[in-house]
Write a structure and sequence with these properties.
elongated; five-stranded antiparallel beta sheet; Alpha-Beta Plaits; two-stranded antiparallel sheet; alpha+beta
Length: 116
């Protein structure tokens, strides 16, 4: 967790117009397979963080030659607890009945895997 650079909201004035800038320190990207239950995960993330972006793509993972549809859910926020985020990712992995689940936290790819 980055505690040195807290997020900031600043008011700016240019050409007599006032506007606000918000800076978010943390970026999280979940890579969710489009399997039963993925919509519930997206709803949970939306309720927790309020805003997100979604990208759909074909993934060729685990040595498979047939693509799997994936959704990348991207969140920008502040003051993320890394350990809690890893635990959340593991809960998502279990709910989606996956052997592994990948997510990016501040440009570091983290793979959460089953140990069996």
């Amino acid at each position: 967790m980055n505690t040195e650079n807290k997020s900031s909201t600043k008011n700016h004035t240019r050409n007599e117009k006032i506007y606000r800038i918000k800076i978010f320190n943390d970026s999280i990207k979940f890579y969710l397979p489009r399997v039963e239950g993925y919509n519930d995960i997206i709803k949970d993330i939306t309720l927790k963080y309020g805003a997100l972006s979604i990208f759909e793509f074909d993934g060729y993972f685990e040595g498979k030659f047939e693509p799997t549809k994936y959704i990348r859910v991207e969140i920008h926020t502040n003051d993320v607890n890394t350990e809690k985020m890893i635990e959340f990712a593991n809960e998502v992995r279990i709910k989606l009945k996956q052997q592994s689940l990948a997510f990016e936290f501040n440009n570091n790819l983290i793979l959460v895997e089953s140990d069996d």
